[in-house]
Amino acid sequence: MKLLTPSTSKQVEPAFLPPDFNASSGEGSLSLSESDNDIPEKKWKISPEKWICAKSSKVKHSNLNSIITEKLELLILLQRMSKDSMTEENNDCIKNLELETKQVSTDTKCVYCDDEEHGEHGSKKNTKCINLSEDSTDSGYAWVILVSAFFLEVLTGCSLTSFGIMMVDIIDSTEQRASNIAFIGALLSSFLGLSGVLLGPIVHRFGCRVVVFSGSLILALCCLTTFLVRNVIVYYFSMGIVSGVGYSCYQLGAPVAVSHWFQKKKAFSLSVIMTGISVGSMLWGPITRLLINKYSWRGAVLIIGGLQLHGCLIAAILKPGPLLSKSLLEKKRSSRFNKEILKNKRFIIYCFSNFTLLYGHVVPFMMLPIKAESNGISKMNAAVLVAIMGACSTTVRPLVGYLGDKAWFDKNFVFGIFSILGGILTSASFYMRTYNLLIIYACLFGMISATYIPLTLSVAVEIVKKPEFIANGLAIILTVHGLATLVSITAFGTLDYVQLKNNCEKDTVFQHFTQSVHIQNALATTYESTGDRWRTFSYRKAAAAVKRYPRPITSFEEALAIPGVGERVANKIWEIVETGGLRKLEELSNQEDIKAISTLSGIWGVGQTTARQWVSQGIKTLEDVRNKAKLTRPQQIGLKHYDDLLERMPREEAGRIDDFVREKCLGIDADLVILCCGSYRRGKETCGDVDFLITHPDGKSHHDLLPKIIKRLGSFLTDHLVSLQQKGGQSKYLGVCKLDEEGAKHRRIDIITVPRDEYACAIMYFTGSAHFNRSMRHLAGKMGMSLSEHSLNKGVVRKRGEKLNPGVPLPTPTEESVFKHLGLKYLPPNERDH
DNA sequence: GGGCGGTACTG
DNA sequence: CAGTAC
DNA sequence: GCCC
């Protein structure tokens, strides 16, 4: 996913280090110490044993210092900007600068070292000297640093990769527009790059150890916040801006640390940690997907936050190296902006073209997982696509860097060709829908963009020409990149989620298509009122199938081909697609009776039979019911809480009910196992009710437990609908509860106690969804088994529906074991929606 | 043409 | 027993 | 209503 963010991490990372350019580094802070270090390196050759460093001379040479600093500042900027797109021009330019700088500083015969930071070298009193023998760099502890920095980069690779992967889940669960969520990614990528500039001075001041440590804490805190808070505005900060800053701490820390420890093998060591980013961006995709599958995206965020705390460990390992030079690092950089550059028309035009280039580049990248999933590709395989794209781009980058250095390499030509190729590919991607094609797309896009994105900078250098403007020019281009990223992703505000998710070509078809789902459901509801149970059943099934269908339906035949959609429903779908409506539904829903029936059957305990009877007796409104109808006890309760009980509660409220009930139950017996199932366990953002499943590990204490629980819950339970149901070893309570909070509403609550050996099957059953249970039962039946809330039985003998032999229960200690018996791979609750 | 889950509560 | 809900 |  790193590829996606041309304006950020990418460019800031040293993607390739020309062998002759040993001072290249990822960050300005780094470059400063390095170029400083180049001085001792030269001297080494003269006196390899020891280096005398006269710290006091710093004062005398303050003038020189400012010259050095000034040169170095330019050097920093140049290196930062050009890193992986090193071209002859700016390479030369930098080399000249280096040379100059070296001369100036060798003249002073002075190297500034910091003797406080590494006691073992410099703490000897009176000898303001530091031993910079070869032993202190490139070996020993340096390798520990290298490994740590490598893992730090692996952690960094998490940033955009995992965000891209979880974007679909976030959109689904927050029910926000895709653009709103994508904007988080835009912020993340922008701040990843932007804060690199801001953090530079901080690294200078406090060293990379502190920065990495804070980065780690920041990230963990961000993840925790994201986990706890359910507010998209907060995510803009917790997942976007602040996370971006956290990751840039890592991104800065690793190369800086390495550069403090490696002298001769600096290029090598920096390449090694770059590999860390590639490895990271490949690993995090699938890892994130797996975590989401098991714990939902919030859980995944929390776990990732925990994993990011490893940064603290790494920070502890990153002790300041022998090559650190604090005194120079503390120098401020003054960057002056030269307006002359804006008079270069070619450059201005180039800026605009870069804007459009990046505009078109970012979106397909960011949207790859969504595109894949909308074409029916599994979420895991979508994650693999991202990994493939990352792998391809990170493989090609060093190659481009290497070739870019060759004299015969015409970067203007290559840049032009590849950006056109990228455009063609992006256009063509509309037609790529199968997994194989998308794999090819991911590879090509990864490679092509890895080619032209770094080249944007080299070409800029060529256009700017004058060395004194290069730094400004590159800064402008990078700003343009960042702006394009932000704007392009924000522009998605014009598209809504459904369109995006279905990769829409014809807007109208889409609208009608999504409408058809609602209409099918409406038809189902209508028929429910008229009492045709099985027709209702089929409409619902068809509506669910259409909802899952990843593409717009463009023909009658296509509709007919969907399982669950027969000729009659396909006809209706086609009518909806063509006309946007359905006459049959209009007729039915305009009948007053039918509306009345659906209103009345909203009362808990009132079904279509009762409702229809009432309507035929002239009882058509809730007011009529209250005055005239004869109500059962549960129906009275249902009527009393009519509005509350029809409303779904926010997930977070279900969570608080969970906490409350859990605590009360543990007060009875601390060994009780309490699980809140239903849509809550499936990770839904709203829940119609809460289902508690309670068991006792000793296998027998569940007897007589339920009455105690009900008593214990006291006035939390406001009404009892069905006080006790017994079947087998299970007991079930259905009731109404209300939290003791300001403005709390009444909610439906079910509590079930089960024997330990039925626990797994009970969890499965009460987690649902209803449709999922149905398909599981069906599958079990086909395999000669039967699945119920009590057990999974095998050896069931059925004869024309009647089962002659109930079979024997299979041991099912866990949900996984149930899936295993049925020959299925485990499905986490959040994937059991159908 | 028959199945589409099987069962326990309320009245 | 029918009706309802899980 | 759909599917076997």
UniProtKB/TrEMBL annotation:
GO terms for cellular component: membrane; nucleus. Its main location: membrane. Keywords: DNA damage, DNA repair, DNA replication, DNA synthesis, DNA-binding, DNA-directed DNA polymerase, Lyase, Membrane, Metal-binding, Nucleotidyltransferase, Nucleus, Transferase, Transmembrane, Transmembrane helix. It comes from the Eukaryota. CDD domains: MFS_MCT_SLC16, NT_POLXc. It is a multi-pass membrane protein. GO terms for molecular function: DNA binding; DNA-directed DNA polymerase activity; lyase activity; metal ion binding; transmembrane transporter activity. This is DNA-directed DNA polymerase. The chain crosses the membrane at residues 141-168, 180-203, 210-229, 235-258, 267-287, 299-318, 347-368, 380-400, 412-432, 438-461, 473-495. Belongs to the DNA polymerase type-X family. InterPro entries: DNA-dir_DNA_pol_X (IPR002054), DNA_pol-X_BS (IPR019843), DNA_pol_B_palm_palm (IPR028207), DNA_pol_lambd_fingers_domain (IPR018944), DNA_pol_lamdba_lyase_dom_sf (IPR027421), DNA_Pol_thumb_sf (IPR037160), DNA_pol_X (IPR022312), DNA_pol_X_beta-like (IPR002008). It is found in: Membrane; Nucleus. Residues 1-11 have a biased composition (Polar residues). Residues 24-34 have a biased composition (Low complexity). Residues 1-37 are annotated as: Disordered. Its EC number is 2.7.7.7. It is an enzyme of class 2 (transferase). It catalyses: DNA(n) + a 2'-deoxyribonucleoside 5'-triphosphate = DNA(n+1) + diphosphate. The active site is at K572 (nucleophile). GO terms for biological process: DNA replication; double-strand break repair via nonhomologous end joining. Residues 145-532 form the Major facilitator superfamily (MFS) profile domain. Coiled coil: none annotated.
